[in-house]
Each structure stands twice: as C-alpha cells, then as structure tokens.
Amino acid sequence: MMVDYMGPSLDTTICAISNAVWAFANNPDQWGLVRSDPQLLPSAINEVLRYDAPIQGFSRYVARDVDMDGVVLPAGSRAIVFYGAANRDERKYPDPDRFNVLRRPGDHLGFGAGPHACVGMNLARIEMLALFTALAKRVRRFTILEQEPLLNNVLRGFKTLRVAVK
Predict the structure, then answer these.
(1) Fewer CB atoms near the end CB (10 Å): N or C, the chain?
(2) What range defines the domain where residue 160 resides?
(3) Residue 68: inside a domain, yes or no?
C-alpha cells in the first residue's frame, strides 16, 4: 500500500515543483506576493497545480452506459478527463492563462476529483509547502538558465530546469 501511496506521488511532485519554479521565474511579481505574505503559499500551490497540472489527463474504463450532457459514453469504452484543459476553462476561471497566486483555486483538477482523487495529494502539498516556505525566506528571484520539457504522455514538467537564484 505504501508503494501505491509514495511511488506515483514522486514523479508528479517533482514535476509540480519544477512547474512552480518555472511559473515563479516567469512571473516574478507573483513570487514577490508570496514572499511578502507567506500565508499565500497554500493558494499559490493550488494555482500552480491549476495552471500547469503535473498530470494533464487521466482515463477510466466506462463500466456502464453513462449519459453525460446528452452524449452517451457506452459501457466498455474509455473516457478521459483532460485536467489541463479543465483547469484552463474560462467559464470556471476568469483569465485562465494568467498565473495568479491570489486566485485561490481550491477546486482545480490537478489531483483528480471524487473517488479518483490522488491518494498522495496531501503529501505532495505538504512537501511543496515546506520547500517553498523555506525558499520564500531565502530567494528573492528565480532566473531560468536552461529548460528542457519532459516528453511524456502522462507527466508534464521538465527533464531539465537549471535555475539561478538571487
């Protein structure tokens, strides 16, 4: 059971952290807000997960026919939820392509939802909160020196993200 808890959360947490560093480097005003008010960190972490979820989509087996807003998903088929697209839905999030730590998007789909929610999400949040709390005390600015996106069908993050800090 611990392997199921810790294993999948490792790569996703690493990707979420690298996505956060990238977002803060490219939006230094948002990092400034977090540094000036560390109580914004929980909402900032949720905004990172909304803005650039480490898993962009997830599929499930359809066990029985399901009518979804007039479209029937037949039993035996597969359905996919694209978290990245849902998290950028302008009907839900005004100005969705803007990274905004004041947004407080506690209902993002970065960790899935309902019975399919990520079992390790609380551990990931604790790890990110601890790391960025420490960084907020010491780092004024992140500067990207080198970046190479991770080419993966499941994960979204960076293969290489070399950063300078001030």
Answers:
(1) N
(2) 2-55+99-165
(3) no
Read off the pTM.
Answer: 0.89
Structural domain count, the chain: 1
Residue 165 zone, left/alpha/beta (φ > 0; ψ -120 to 50; rest)? beta
In the predicted structure, residue 5 carries a pLDDT above the cut 70: no
In a domain, 29, yes or no: yes
* 3 has a pLDDT exceeding 80: no
2 pLDDT above the threshold of 60: no
What integer pLDDT is reported at residue 27 of this predicted model?
98
Give the CA angle between residues 114, 119, 120 to the nearest 5°: 135
Which two structure tokens, joined as six digits, stand for 61? 């087996």
What CATH number does the domain containing 157 carry? 1.10.630.10
Structure tokens at 11: 């790569």
CB atoms under 10 Å from CB of 132, counted, come to 24
Q: What is the dihedral of CA 42, 48, 50, 53, to 10 degrees?
A: -130
Q: Which run of H or of E encompasses 153?
A: none
